[in-house]
Amino acid sequence: MLLFWSRPSFKVQSPSKICVGDTANLKASNGMDWTWQTNNGQILSNSPEVFLSNMVTGNASIKLSGLDANNCLGDTTFTIAILPKPILTIKPDIDTVCELDLINLEITTDIGSVYLQRGRLASPFVQVQFQVSAFFTVEAISDGCITEVKKFIIVIPKPVIELTPDTTIKLGSSLLIEAKSEGVITWRPGKNLSCIQCTQTIATPDDITRYCATADNLGCKSENCMVIDVEDFCHPTMPNILSLSSPNNHAFCMPINSCLRDASLFIYDRWGNLIYQGKGRGACWEANAAHLHQVYTYLIKTNKAIEGERNFRGTVWVGQ
């Protein structure tokens, strides 16, 4: 009597898709004497399992042949999709940054979506900032295939600058000012300084001046500033009496101090009414007989860039 068995059907544990560069593990069961081969006849393995790697994008057709418990030959063919991994581009390619600097990055991928530190980017343009050295992770994901860039970003601390404190000097005097810090020191403005790129420099300002020191440590910069006020630089000496009988002493004029170049002169009568207003060194109030034997108040208003508005007040008497 002849016995007939059904053609064997084998079970295969296999993913339906893998990513280029990944490895797929294929396993066969309920049989023996296995042969794994590609669709072009290349033998991959004769064991119950095989590892697929170095696959190119496209569809891979795999055929499994073997015997069942009755020594009947059977086979099964299946297809695995080989998916491309995204191409991830980061510009500029950073690995060292300055502490808390804002870095403008352009992160793009040919397919899929981009994730920065696990958060999805809505735009390829993004700003990043680092306070301490840390890992920086960017991923592009397309249909489960991941391209990852993970690098350690070195953060260079910005230099701390210790400066000579704000101070006041006499007009014509000099002061040694110092900036203590790592890196190369540069002072600004350079006017009235003995040295611009020095830790110590001698300042001889002729007006109130803010001096700022910039420290450059491996390309990371910080700035700190101090102010030198110049005493008696802008204290005009004004007359307190005008004489109408004197051709040279009946006008009340703006002094020629250089700091008063753009100042304004105001004259008020004893009731507080403004009777004269002028600006600049050419401003002069000409007293006449109507002003005789009266006391007037003057106000000089000048603006200084650093300390704000400075005013000078006084009185002047008009006599014969």
Task: Tell me what you see in this structure.
The chain is mainly β and 320 residues long. The protein folds into four domains: 11-83, Immunoglobulins (Immunoglobulin-like, Sandwich), CATH 2.60.40; 88-156, Immunoglobulins (Immunoglobulin-like, Sandwich), CATH 2.60.40.10; 162-231, Immunoglobulins (Immunoglobulin-like), CATH 2.60.40; 241-319, Immunoglobulins (Immunoglobulin-like, Sandwich), CATH 2.60.40. It contains no helices and 30 strands. The protein has strands at residues 11-13, 17-19, 24-29, 32-38, 43-45, 49-52, 58-67, 73-83, 88-91, 96-98, 103-109, 113-116, 119-120, 125-128, 134-142, 145-156, 162-163, 167-170, 175-180, 184-188, 200-203, 209-217, 220-231, 241-243, 251-253, 264-268, 274-279, 284-286, 294-304, 308-319. The strands form eight sheets. Strands 2-8-7-4-5 form a five-stranded mixed beta sheet, with no helix packed on it. Strands 10-16-15-12-13 form a five-stranded mixed beta sheet, with no helix packed on it. Strands 24-30-29-26-27 form a five-stranded mixed beta sheet, with no helix packed on it. It is rod-shaped and about 140 Å long. The mean pLDDT is 86.
